[in-house]
Design goal:
Length: 101
């Protein structure tokens, strides 16, 4: 009877350890995501660089910028270019994520 209790305890301990590892991995993944401030800065820099290109009207240049935007999981909406104002919406959020002025 004692060995059954020990065996059950070992099994529960292994399951708890596995759950703890999974939780640690999820926390690490969340902590590695960029902050809102970092994302705003990156969006602004990339958008300004794109707008400064003399050939930004070329399809391949626009496609390269659009491909980068897709990697962020966002959709950029240019509200104006003078001064630069843009907004973005994240695909995993139901509402506007934020904007950069």
């Amino acid at each position: 009877m004692l060995s059954a209790i020990v065996s059950k305890g070992d099994k529960q301990a292994k399951e708890a350890e596995q759950q703890a590892k999974q939780t640690r991995a999820e926390i690490d993944a969340l902590q590695s995501q960029p902050s809102d401030e970092h994302m705003q800065k990156q969006m602004r820099e990339k958008a300004e660089a794109f707008l400064a290109l003399p050939n930004r009207s070329y399809r391949e240049v626009r496609n390269a910028f659009n491909d980068w935007v897709k990697t962020t999981g966002a959709r950029v909406i240019f509200m104006s270019t003078e001064p630069l104002r843009l907004s973005w919406t994240c695909s995993d959020l139901p509402t506007d994520f934020g904007g950069v002025n």
